[in-house]
Amino acid sequence: MNIVFVSSEAAPFAKTGGLADVCSALPATLQQLGHQVSVFLPAYRQIYDAGIPIETTGMGYCVPVGTREVWGEILKSTLPGSEVPVYFVRHDRYFFREGLYNSNGVDYQDNCERFIFFCRSVFRAIELLNIPVEILHANDWQTGLVPAYLATLYQNGRALGNRTELFGAELYPPQEAQPNRFWNKVRSVFTIHNMRHQGRFMQQEMELTGIDWKYFTFDKMEFYGQLNLLKTGITFADAITTVSPEYAKEIQTDDFGESLQGVLRYRSEAISGILNGIDTAEWNPETDPALAAAYNTETVFEKKPLNKAALQRECGLPESADTPLLGVVSRFDWQKGLDLVADVIPHFVESRGAQFVILGTGDPELERRFTELAARYPNNVAALIKFNSALSHQVEAGLDIFLMPSRYEPCGLNQMYSQRYGTLPLVRHTGGLADTVVGASDETIANRTANGFMSHWGTSDDLQKTVDWAIHCYDHRKEDWRQMILTAMKIDHSWRKSAGLYADLYERIQMLG
What's the pTM value of the predicted model, to 2 decimals? Predict the structure, then answer.
């Protein structure tokens, strides 16, 4: 199958979060399964910092943005470790900037115009490069116009935009729209990675899209008088996916729908949840160069304690094999429930002598709270207010319990990293956390399905009770603890399973009339 991914991020070229990892790993895995895959990205300034050769295709073009025709150029590279081509839409005034979407936390005022240009450019580039395509897979609000353009401007097999130019030479006669034989056979998939980010803009930006105003309605593109690009992708796509089955259900509720639950419920039959995978080459305790001692399921109980001791030394904590070591690797944000972690740390330090390692940056108030806890309990709490990739691997390998009490979590990756490294995750029952963690109970321990711990209510009291239970198991149920570690490490979190589910979805929507 011929698949074109359209995204505002893909690692290692441009990244602000998990979207970049998905739009790198999934295309590469689909290619391994025998599909023909291409990726489109904006040509940000950051793409040149990845250390990967980028070349021009020698092709330029113009696309309409409102009443103007805007020039662009197509660049090309390859996803590392694969043969997946990556095409970059270049227009320096739009994309050669300090940040991808903002500068110093302030969104660019022309973000809507920037991504209108990007989405329109993808269609022109596919035509210019003669890329075969059966599936257009768009991701998050920045590409929400891709399904809309396919369903409106490119419906009935006709490209209805203005003329395309190849470095000034007319490629198509300007007086007529050009039929394109394959657009009417192309289907669209739209993946929601996070409902909170919707791409809401003033209604006058609708004029720039080139889409008829008849679609600026409550059931299509309009949202309380604004243009909403996430909603646009949801309403026009042939299929909608989210990054976990549980999140697919949650976003259709009032608690998690971010005011779009109505349109999501209306399109419920088109929605499916496919759990993200992880990079099992990068996150592999058997080959990880960052670890003090590599290990697998046969050597974990011999070698993992060496990583715990190394982490305690690195963080300035007393070395103690029997002391429960808990921790966090995270962006400091309300979503992650880390204020609850800060609330319960004093109890477990004072009552159980537990140790904590906190790695991350973000909300200044959370940074202050963790820094103060480290100063108050220097032998029990290490607050590492920074991000360091190698250290994040060391934390995953050295901890006994990984804390992830997120208030919501579309998918989550750290709980899967933890399981692969034999560190039992303690999570809240939400989104992808509920899909990947089987909480320890007498029943799940007995049937050997337990692979972590589960809290439910998102309160400090509930988190404290769950941590109490986890430490009790650590201290008093040693054989059960070892079994849970082995169960966790044997889970297949690779992208291959997820990619297979996406391939099945692509085939199903290709059969649509």
Answer: 0.89
The reply to whether domains 2-277+496-510 and 300-492 share a CATH topology is yes
201 by Cβ neighbours in 10 Å (0-12 / 13-18 / 19+) ranks as buried
Tell me what pLDDT residue 12 has: 94
| Mean pLDDT to the nearest integer, 108-122 | 98
269-279, pLDDT tens digit by residue?
A: 999 999 999 98
C-alpha 254: how far from chain center: 23
Q: Kindly give, in sequence order, each residue whose CB lies less than 8 Å from that of residue 163, ignoring residues fewer than 6 positions away.
A: 62, 170, 171, 172, 173, 174
Q: Where are the domains of the chain?
A: 2-277+496-510, 300-492
Question: Helix axis angle, 495-510 relative to 18-32, nearest 10°?
Answer: 80
Q: How far is C-alpha 429 from the geometric centre of its chain's CA atoms?
A: 19
Q: Give the C-alpha separation, 22 to 11, whole Å.
A: 8
Angle at 501 between CA 284 and CA 451, to 5 degrees: 45
Q: Which residues on neighbouring strands pair with residue 454, listed in sequence order?
A: 427
Task: Specify the fold of 300-492.
Answer: Rossmann fold (3.40.50)
Residue 104 carries which DSSP code? T
One CATH from 3.30.70.120, 3.40.50.720, 3.40.50.2000, 2.60.450.10 for 2-277+496-510 = 3.40.50.2000
Rounded Cα distance, 276 and 25, in Å = 10
Alpha-carbon span 296 to 65, nearest angstrom: 54
- For tokens 């999501």, name the residue: 264
The two tokens of residue 78 are 């390859």
CB 438 within 8 A of CB 483: no
pLDDT-based confidence at residue 178 (cuts at 50, 70, 90) = very low
pLDDT at 160 > cutoff 90: no
Question: DSSP character for 281?
Answer: T
Residue 460 pLDDT > 90, yes or no?
yes
Q: 322-380 pLDDT, tens per residue?
A: 999 999 999 999 999 999 999 999 999 999 999 999 999 999 999 999 999 999 999 99
